[in-house]
Design a protein that fits this description.
heterodimer; A: alpha+beta; Ubiquitin-like (UB roll); DNA polymerase, domain 1; 2 domains; five-stranded mixed sheet; 5 helices; 37% helix; B: alpha+beta; Uridine Diphospho-n-acetylenolpyruvylglucosamine Reductase, domain 3; Enolase-like, domain 1; five-stranded antiparallel sheet; four-stranded antiparallel sheet; 9 helices; globular
Amino acid sequence: MTTFQLNGKTVIVDLRPGTTLLDYLRQEGFFSVKYGSDKGETGADSVLVDGKIMNASLMLIHTVNGKTIETVESFATGRDVHPLQDAFIEEGAIQCGYCTPGMILAIESLAREIETPSEDNVKDVLAGVYCRCTGYVKPIKAAIKYLAAKNTKGHEGK
Amino acid sequence: MWYSIKSIQTPQTLDEAFLQQQQEGSALFSGGSYLVAEKNPSIRTLIDINGLVDNFVNADDKAVTIQAGATLQSFMDTVKPINPNCRLFDGARASCPSKNIRNQRTFGGEVGQNRPNSDALVFLHAVDADLTIYTGSERTISIREWDGNGIVTQIAYYPNKIESIELQRFSVLQSAPAIVIVGGIRRSGQLEFAIGGTAHKIQTFNVMMNNWNKNSISEIAKNAVRQFIPDHFGSLAYKESLIATAVKRLGDAL
């Protein structure tokens, strides 16, 4: 039996050994997490595990026991998208959208990890997510915009 | 899905894990990123040692001690504030440009997989890191002498015993696995080089400082290239010249 938190809900599963987290998430309809390759090269299968960006295709389901998993499905509330998704829309940082959930999660993991991430930090965290359409200029711009706004808001609130 | 996996064992002690590991079709599993990526069909049992190996890193001027369960990223996060110029930091990033994977890949796995194209591993060979290995009991040996038997529990190296360290790599792209990686150190009047890349194994070569000249460089390159193969990255002559260039640059810098 494997028990974990998935987007705020407790999940208990009993799956055959060798099942990856990606297999499970796709089977359960979390289609923001995509198959890219079996080797984690693309980052299309990104999820947050205890707030850290990781590849679901490289994780066997038993290893997430007791952990907290987040996918992009947990980011929007009703029709309101997350401010980071908003920044992507405003900057036109999306084309086919295959890599976008991975990029969103990668940037969010960085925002939680470092208070004022640099552009190099953004490039580093996005290096694990391959984009073959827009490239990285606009996603980096969107990330910096989001991180700056988040920081300003954070400081205003203090 | 890794279809060949029939069971996952969670041993309670290293002794139990060591015995289970010797069974045919078994493999140790900690971070597991390589294993899961490869999905080797001959592996039927995974021995999960996550709870048995520590995952913290200690680093100061004298010693860098990495527990086998520490991920490449946790190492980088720990070491960067203490020593921003740490070359293993660069090696860990070059070995794995994806932060996603660095968050999963452990140092124990990096050493256990023994891949010659791992920058971090070439670095550890260059600095002659000590491995703590469990084979029924714990013992410490040089990484250069390890035969691959046993469970790696700790990796340590001692910056205060090394006068200088350099790392040089040649790859098609910065983020691509390197064709040639050379790590070099200077200690006790001697230059020591570890050479890896798209090769069969990582090799080490020592040269006394007073013997450092053109001939010693070409001798190292000539011997090292024997473990390489000609492929789409280039001929053996090309690789030999890359090795010679890297060794010369490092030797001069050291």
